[in-house]
Automatic annotation (TrEMBL):
Domain of life where this protein originates: Bacteria
Keyword terms, alphabetized: FAD, Flavoprotein, Oxidoreductase
Domain (Acyl-CoA oxidase/dehydrogenase middle): residue spans on this chain: 128-226
Official protein name in the record: Butyryl-CoA dehydrogenase
Cofactor(s) demanded: FAD
One example GO MF annotation: flavin adenine dinucleotide binding
PROSITE patterns: ACYL_COA_DH_1, ACYL_COA_DH_2
The UniProt record lists the keyword Cytoplasm: no
PANTHER family linked: ACYL-COA DEHYDROGENASE (PTHR43884), ISOVALERYL-COA DEHYDROGENASE, MITOCHONDRIAL-RELATED (PTHR43884:SF12)
Pfam families for the chain: Acyl-CoA_dh_1, Acyl-CoA_dh_M, Acyl-CoA_dh_N
Length: 395
């Protein structure tokens, strides 16, 4: 794809602008030439993951004392620019940080952080997040996976599904949520556990045959009499669900940044094509029916950018109001992901028959976009959270 500068809606500072330029150059020169080959193989290219690691992208939001940079805005910039070239690699980075290392950095003990974070933030290892279950879907607060107390710790039995980065050679640990009891109000008591790869009874199933994100790693996970010690509890016993809701807020902004990359790519590809493709002796971009659709793509890109980086700014503010950040995260996620799906449809329409051919990137973006509305909380969940933020007593 030809590099196109249509201007930015959100005014990043000089350091972030320089960082964006560096990541964009890396993505378009080092990754873009291989993206179609990697997606055709339906596997995560570890060579690309290692290049992301060499650029320091896995440590962008992590604590500085473990090798991170502590800057959530930079992470969003990186995800956006990687996602502009390939959504599969974008979600790999997003999940590795937002759902992989971030919960350990936020809720882990000093010993857990020391054990895992240096390798995770350096990209030498990947962590996965086991929350969704086959019977549960959005109802993650009532897991069927159970952890039972023993004399030496806990025994976990259950299954998880759709787990990103769970089956790679670099995967070192999978964080699992399990029911450990029942609260006084009858709700499930949920606890999070760190389960290292290779633990007896932990089995990663075959990779899914997905409709999109071909070059990302996604597997089901089963746990059969998996034994873990007390020092493998992440955070407090019984607080696992709340911890992961907090982690999901961060992840929603990251997914919105990934969606923003998709919108921008669709806009730029469609504008470039409309300027060169001729019908009846004129470029199709000269016709209002096409030009107005391209204008809509530009509006989506600008609006999504403002929402993503306003939410990231709230996250970076150490004194931020958690409820305001949660609302900003849901708004950014809802608007950017639904706009990404619309953007791929518009761009495919501009390309006509070519938009249905796999030799054009538009077809790949079209495949990849739909899951953005589902992962990290569906659009319906985001509307529910936004409505609650307005003070409405919705259930």
């Amino acid at each position: 794809m030809t590099a196109v500068d249509h201007g930015s809606a959100y005014r990043l500072g000089p350091e972030h602008r320089d960082f964006r330029a560096a990541v964009a150059d890396f993505a378009r020169t080092r990754l873009a030439p291989h993206v179609e080959k990697w997606n055709a193989r339906h596997r995560l290219p570890l060579e690309a993951v290692r290049e992301l690691a060499e650029l320091g992208l896995f440590g962008l939001a992590g604590p500085e004392e473990y090798g991170g940079a502590g800057d959530f805005t930079s992470l969003c910039v990186a995800i956006e620019e990687i996602g502009y070239v390939d959504q599969s690699l974008g979600i790999t980075l997003s999940a590795a940080v937002g759902l992989g290392s971030n919960p350990i950095a936020t809720f882990g003990t000093p010993e857990q952080r020391e054990r895992y974070l240096p390798d995770l933030l350096a990209g030498r290892a990947l962590a996965a997040f086991g929350l969704t279950e086959p019977e549960g879907g959005t109802d993650a607060g009532a897991p069927r996976t159970r952890a039972t107390r023993t004399a030496g710790g806990w025994v976990i039995n259950g299954s998880k599904q759709f787990i990103t980065n769970s089956g790679t050679e670099l995967t070192s640990v999978i964080t699992i949520t399990a029911r450990t009891g029942t609260a006084s109000d009858g709700a499930a008591e949920v606890t999070a556990f760190l389960v290292p790869v290779g633990t007896p009874g932990l089995e990663v199933g075959p990779a899914y045959d997905k409709a999109g994100w071909y070059a990302s790693d996604t597997h089901p996970v089963t746990l059969t009499d998996v034994e873990v010690a007390d020092d493998q509890v992440l955070g407090e016993v019984g607080r696992g669900y709340g911890q992961f809701l907090a982690a999901l807020d961060d992840g929603r902004v990251a997914i919105a940044a990934l969606a923003l990359g998709c919108i921008r790519a669709c806009r730029d590809l469609a504008v470039e094509y409309a300027g060169t493709r001729e019908t009846f002796g004129k470029p199709i971009g000269s016709r209002q029916g096409i030009a107005f659709q391209l204008a809509d793509l530009d509006v989506m890109a600008h609006a999504a950018e403002l929402l993503v980086y306003a939410a990231a700014e709230r996250k970076n503010d150490v004194d931020h109001d958690r409820s305001e950040f949660k609302r900003a995260a849901s708004i950014a996620k809802l608007y950017a992901t639904e706009s990404a799906v619309t953007a791929t449809r518009i761009a495919a329409q501009v390309f006509g028959g070519y938009g249905f051919m796999n030799e054009y990137p538009i077809a790949r973006f079209h495949r990849d976009a739909k899951i953005l509305e589902i992962g990290e909380g569906t659009s319906e969940v985001q509307r529910l959270l936004i409505a609650r933020g307005l003070g409405l007593p919705v259930a």
